What we know:
By secondary structure, the protein is α+β, with helices and mostly antiparallel strands. 44% of the residues lie in helices and 17% in strands. The chain has one domain (6-71). It has a four-stranded mixed sheet. The longest helix is centred in the C-terminal third of the chain and has 12 residues, at 53-64. The protein is globular. The N and C termini lie far apart (26 Å).
Amino acid sequence: MSRIIIEYNPTITKLGEKIxxxxxxxxMVSNDESSSQYEISIVANVLSDHGCIDDLIYINNxxxxxxxxxxx
Length: 72
């Protein structure tokens, strides 16, 4: 049995959140379209490409904690 771990409403800067929303395709969008889930390794790559170091450090710590997705 495996588990999928989702970090809901993570502590990411507004700029980091915008970069994620603009550059990462969501894996899931809620029915009311109020939130989306993003695969965390793709998020890390995009934040790295855009030089968002503080957000990248935070995301990398979530990866260490075995988080699979973030939900914004």
